[in-house]
Specification:
3 domains; two-stranded antiparallel sheet; membrane; single chain; eight-stranded mixed β-sheet; 10 strands; alpha+beta; transmembrane helix; about 55% helix; Alpha-Beta Plaits; adenylate cyclase activity; Adenylate cyclase, class 3
């Protein structure tokens, strides 16, 4: 008189579908006992109780008619819930179980509240309600069952004796025990299957995360984040935005490539790209691509802090790259690379077309437009260690960064000559209070950024400088004949 108490099919089937490609036939999931089978089992054991009770005169003879109803109802319920409009009803299982509670309560009432059979049927009902719908379903089912019991007793009257014959009691207890054990077995198997599926899904999720992080190496972090969070669709679409565009390359790289072995050159180039990428990401730049020894970065998409802040972040990044290049050049020199590699940079700000370009099966997230051409042109015109910016960029950063007028240039795509400016340094770092100092001579190189030095490092640096100063003074005092070299 009740449906199967457990149905985790939705969860287990979803897990199975998600893992079917990976797991194939290795899954050990056990399918749940369907409502149809569970209801047949419940009503069959109830029919057995009725027959034995009638044979032992515990119930009235006319209750044998309930046997036919008990055997037919599971099939009727199956047809109603699978082949009619009811199959689209939400929570149909819970609703059908409430109907079963009414039928069960009616049966208990018709038997006149004979103790053991009544308790057995009531236990099957409450067991099913608790597992299928929890406390709320149990309360609703118990209420309906109690109402049906009252109506049944009012119709048939109470039994002459609430005690049932021994065989009737034993059959009721056994029938209820069989139902509970069978459904509990399926519940246990489903719980195991669900835990296995959960573990497999978690493993697959971890594998997917690891794979996504590997794939993220081929995209700028901002673009990867917007795609994997669902903020951006992977389709061919573009938009117009005002961006700050940055180009850089290494002056002297061509000559160096002729002197070094390819493996050593590759290692040097990757070291350079790694250092510059860290600087770009620290300032929020979207790394577009690496071409040879060139880097292309833009600011303002997918996220923007405003035109002025984007331009300032771009130029700040360029200044930081120039400083970082000097540090790397010192390291390369200690590794035996004598060619003085220097970076040159160009920055332009203006409207560009940004988005996915290419084909449906292979696309590239990039930007196009005359401002991109201008930034590339400025980079090619820059001297080693120089940062050239367009007038638009200069107008956005001039209050915080010192720039020097470099005149005008003619660029394809621009009808008028374009004013350009050279970035000197942050205004806060100009004069005696500047945080960055540099001195480079043959046999000596110093790059100092006091803002980044900790107190512990400060003491070690002071000791090193004092030792170097003492060494220079002692060598200066020696006569020429005492010097080596």
């Amino acid at each position: 008189m009740m449906s199967a108490p457990v149905d985790l099919r939705n969860a287990s089937n979803s897990a199975g579908n998600a893992l079917s490609h990976e797991q194939g036939s290795s899954s050990t999931a056990v399918p749940p006992m369907p409502d149809y089978s569970g209801r047949i089992l419940a009503y069959t054991v109830t029919a057995v109780i009725i027959v034995i009770g009638v044979l032992q005169s515990a119930f009235e003879q006319w209750l044998l008619w309930l046997v036919a109803g008990a055997l037919l109802w599971p099939h009727i319920a199956h047809i109603l819930t699978r082949r009619t409009f009811l199959n689209r009803s939400p929570r149909i299982r819970q609703k059908m179980l409430l109907v079963d509670c009414v039928f069960g309560g009616t049966f208990i009432g018709f038997t006149g509240l004979v103790a053991v059979p009544a308790v057995s049927v009531a236990l099957m009902m409450m067991f099913s309600c608790l597992i299928v719908g929890g406390i709320r379903q149990w309360l609703m089912g118990t209420t309906l069952m109690a109402s049906a019991i009252a109506a049944g007793v009012a119709f048939a009257g109470p039994a002459e004796s609430f005690q049932s014959p021994l065989l009737t009691s034993i059959s009721a207890v056994l029938a209820t025990g069989i139902y509970i054990c069978v459904t509990a077995f399926y519940s246990h198997q489903q719980a195991r299957a669900l835990m296995l599926a959960k573990t497999q899904i978690q493993n697959q999720r971890e594998q997917s995360i690891a794979l996504s992080h590997k794939l993220s190496k081929y995209l700028s972090p901002q673009v990867w984040q917007s795609i994997f969070t669902g903020e951006r669709d992977v389709r061919l679409e573009t938009q117009r935005k005002k961006l700050a565009v940055f180009f850089s390359d290494i002056k002297g790289f061509t000559e160096l490539s002729e002197e070094m072995e390819p493996e050593a050159l590759t290692e040097l180039l990757n070291h350079y790209f790694n250092g510059m990428s860290e600087v770009a990401l620290r300032y929020g730049g979207t790394i577009d691509k690496f071409v040879g020894d060139s880097i292309m970065v833009f600011f303002g998409d997918p996220t923007s802090r405003g035109q002025k802040e984007d331009a300032f972040a771009c130029v700040s990044m360029a200044i930081e790259m120039r400083k970082h290049m000097k540090i790397m050049r010192q390291k390369w020199r200690s590794q035996g690379i004598k060619t003085p590699l220097q970076i040159r940079m160009g920055i332009s700000t203006g409207y560009t077309t940004v988005g996915n370009f290419g084909a449906e099966n292979r696309m590239d997230y990039t930007i196009i437009g005359k401002e991109v051409n201008l930034a590339s042109r400025l980079e090619s015109l820059a001297e080693p260690g120089e940062i050239l910016v367009s007038y638009e960029t200069f107008s956005l950063i001039k209050d915080r960064i010192m720039c020097r007028d470099k005149g005008e240039i003619t660029v394809k795509g621009f009808t008028k000559p374009v004013p350009i400016y050279e970035v000197v340094d942050f205004r806060r770092d100009m004069g005696p209070n500047r945080s960055f100092l540099e001195h480079e001579h043959s046999g000596f190189a110093m790059y100092l950024d006091s803002d980044k030095i900790t107190e512990k490092e400060r003491k070690a640096i002071l000791e090193a400088l004092e030792d170097a100063a003492d060494r220079l003074r002692s060598e200066e005092e020696l006569p020429d004949s005492g010097k080596l070299g």
